[in-house]
Amino acid sequence: MAIEDTFVMVKPDGVTRGLVGEVISRFESKSLTLAKMRMLTIDDEMARRHYAEHSERSFFGELIEFITSGPVVAMEWTGESAVSVARTLIGATNPAEAAPGTIRGDLGLLTTHNIVHGSDSVESSTRELEIYFG
Ligand code: IDP
Ligand code: MG
Questions:
Q1: Quick one: which atom of ligand 1 is closest to the CA of 120?
Q2: What number does the ligand 1 atom closest to the CA of 90 have?
Q3: Model confidence, pTM
Q4: Any residues with CB less than 8 A from the CB of 41 and at least 6 apart, and which?
Q5: What share of residues in the chain are helix, strand, coil (percent, to 5)?
Q6: Which CATH architecture is the domain 3-41+72-133 placed in?
Q7: Cα dist from 89 to 29, 50, 51, 83, 119, whole Å
Q8: Mind listing the pLDDT tens digit for each residue in 27-74?
């Protein structure tokens, strides 16, 4: 158990659908603390840096195209076990299989448009927070 910072991002589909408030509300309701937030449109270079681990995957091109397609809302959330707690609130990668009660399970349907990103480890959160907040 430890206080952690994690990186969470509302993806372009979440912003377009008007789900920014809903996503923030779920993290606030869990008692995590919003520490930083910024709205931006990611360029190709930033997208490739963020998703570098997936560069050899078949869906990489589609992922980069989607994540750069419109504005995102990047956030830092802080709290006890924030990294794993955020992943639990977000739910499984494929919204069709994500549990009800999770953001993806309640609000999404397609893996390509799964509303929100959350860091998968403390190491990833450090790396991702550096990309978005320096
Ligand atoms: P995560 O977002 O749950 O951590 P990752 O496996 O890290 O999932 O994948 C990163 C993102 O890439 C996913 O959130 C999703 O948007 C996209 N993605 C993952 N797998 C596929 C796939 O098989 N087809 C299309 N897009 C995918
Ligand atoms: Mg991931």
A1: 4
A2: 3
A3: 0.98
A4: 68, 70, 71, 72
A5: 45, 20, 35
A6: 2-Layer Sandwich (3.30)
A7: 11, 21, 21, 10, 12
A8: 999 999 999 999 999 999 999 999 999 999 999 999 999 999 999 999
* Distance from C-alpha of 124 to C-alpha of 127, rounded to nearest angstrom: 5
Distances (CA, A) of 12 to 3, 63, 70, 80: 29, 11, 5, 28
117 is a catalytic site residue: yes
pLDDT value for 68? 98
Q: What are the tokens at 88?
A: 């639990």
Substitution candidate for ligand 1 out of 13, 50, 63 with most atoms within 8 A of CB: 63
Taking CA atoms, 92 is separated from 38, 83, 106, in Å, by: 25, 14, 11
